[in-house]
Design the sequence.
């Protein structure tokens, strides 16, 4: 018998029929799968959150990448916010999510320590959303740890039905999936229903569908760092709609499947090979030429 | 795949394939050599050769050779540590042909005991790695499980002797592969186990008459 594919819809319906919160349901599910206690699993999540928080701090110091291409933008944004002439276009929660997400992206590019959740290239999105909500919504560490279980479970479904790798599905599979994970987790952490978690996941994929992976010179820098910021924002937008009671016409599983089918149709040039998109703009090519000449020299 | 694979691992950036995977290849290469490396000629192929500086692949490979894990914060400074630890290294560009994975490295390693080994390995995505060649022998070693690697004379009964020694020690075999140069010539076994293999068991296997060498390769995931 063929193993049935993981389904976010099934989990949501099961939790709903048992009148359970999705984080409780998924904590039980994952402790069964991992054959460990709830305390052990939560302890693991606390240790991941600790690393994430340190990555944010590292990024905020204004680190630069080894290639010299990127760095210092998260710090610049913090400094701008502190200026008296600063015009805030986003609210505090959204702004901090973007700042933290870019900080982790810059920490990663500068060979700092990060949690690859779900990947190194998309490692800023979850910390961005989680630590902004922690700060502004006074979420406890336990709520964050449980949120990470929800995020990881959503990632499991995406990994099985589609992919989490830019080389397989483009950036929609990498930063996009991170945004879907963060959006679902945000809804759960803020007390939303299991169905609202599903809505947030579906809305993210609707909004980022088709996002290509086009790193300049093949490095995890441009456009990856700003995309981490942008996807943190997408996660908050989707969570906001879901928590307002707006539903998604397309269910979560089908939205994930749509992401896979788009990923399959993307040409190789747009899947992490630096053969298309931003990577082949004249500016990118000129920089890459000079960079590779130096590397060969 | 499980939750811990999605929320993790903790690693030094920027790339799971070019950085974390490169550390793991260095770790595997050092355990295959079986001695502290004092000289490393590192030949980079494909994307490894093109982007190694920006991704820190050069530092990551050295870090692995020194026995560090992918989340070690000293990785960006691996070159300084290598110099201080008496590991002489050099990098080269190499073309291993179209059939080679784009992220492939050929190590030529000399150990502190004078041993020498050539190892080819690739970083195949998401931090997963595969060692494909040892001293010209085709092998397949992923570092996912603890493993033992033998070099022996292709003779009747060697496999039975090795596997029964493992069985008696309570070690379960997960996967096993055999390679030989020619009938009755040199052969090699890669045995992935569910448990780490204690040194005394390795000594027993190493003492078997047909065995030239045996190495324990710790899991690197």
Sequence:
């Amino acid at each position: 018998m063929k193993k049935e594919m993981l389904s976010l819809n099934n989990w949501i319906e099961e939790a709903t029929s048992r009148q359970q919160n999705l984080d409780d349901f998924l904590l039980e599910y994952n402790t069964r799968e991992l054959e460990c206690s709830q305390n052990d699993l939560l302890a693991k999540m606390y240790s991941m959150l600790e690393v994430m928080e340190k990555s944010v701090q590292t990024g905020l110091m204004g680190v630069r990448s080894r290639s010299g291409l990127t760095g210092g933008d998260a710090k610049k944004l913090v400094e701008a916010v502190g200026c008296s002439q600063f015009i805030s276009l986003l609210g505090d929660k959204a702004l901090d999510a973007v700042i933290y997400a870019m900080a982790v992206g810059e920490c990663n590019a500068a060979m700092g320590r990060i949690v690859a959740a779900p990947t190194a290239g998309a490692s800023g999105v979850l910390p961005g959303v989680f630590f902004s909500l922690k700060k502004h919504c006074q979420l406890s560490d336990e709520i964050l740890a449980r949120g990470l279980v929800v995020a990881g479970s959503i990632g499991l479904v995406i990994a099985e039905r589609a992919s989490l790798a830019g080389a397989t599905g483009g950036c929609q599979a990498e930063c996009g999936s991170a945004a879907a994970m963060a959006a679902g987790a945000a809804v759960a952490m803020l007390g939303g229903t299991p169905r609202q978690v599903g809505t947030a996941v579906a809305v993210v994929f609707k909004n980022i569908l088709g996002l290509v992976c086009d790193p300049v010179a093949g490095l995890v820098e441009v456009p990856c760092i700003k995309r981490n910021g942008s996807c943190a924002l997408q996660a908050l937008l989707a969570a906001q709609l879901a928590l307002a009671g707006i539903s998604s016409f397309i269910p979560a599983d089908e939205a994930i499947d749509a992401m896979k089918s788009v990923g399959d149709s993307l040409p190789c040039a747009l899947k992490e090979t630096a053969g298309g998109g931003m990577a082949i703009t004249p500016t990118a090519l000129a920089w890459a030429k000079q960079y590779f000449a130096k590397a060969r020299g | 795949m499980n939750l811990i694979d999605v929320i993790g691992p903790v690693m030094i950036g920027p790339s799971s394939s070019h950085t974390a995977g490169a550390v793991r290849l260095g770790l595997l290469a050092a355990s295959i050599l079986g001695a502290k490396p004092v000289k490393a000629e590192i030949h980079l192929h494909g994307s490894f050769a093109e982007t190694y500086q920006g991704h820190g692949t050069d530092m990551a490979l050295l870090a692995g050779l020194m026995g560090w894990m992918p989340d070690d914060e000293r990785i960006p400074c691996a070159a300084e540590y290598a110099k201080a630890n008496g590991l002489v290294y050099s990098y080269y560009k190499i073309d291993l042909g179209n059939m080679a994975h784009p992220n492939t490295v050929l190590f030529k390693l000399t150990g502190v005991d004078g041993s020498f080994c050539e190892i080819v390995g690739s970083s195949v995505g998401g931090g997963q790695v595969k060692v494909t060649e040892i001293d010209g022998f085709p092998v397949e070693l992923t570092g996912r499980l603890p493993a033992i690697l033998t070099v022996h004379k292709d003779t009747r009964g060697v496999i039975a002797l090795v596997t029964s020694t493992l069985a008696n020690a309570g070690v379960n075999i997960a996967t096993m592969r055999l390679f030989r140069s020619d009938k009755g010539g040199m052969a090699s076994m890669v045995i992935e186990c569910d448990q780490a293999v204690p040194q005394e068991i390795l000594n027993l296997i190493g003492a078997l008459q047909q065995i030239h060498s045996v190495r324990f390769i710790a899991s690197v995931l």
Chain B has a mean pLDDT of 94.
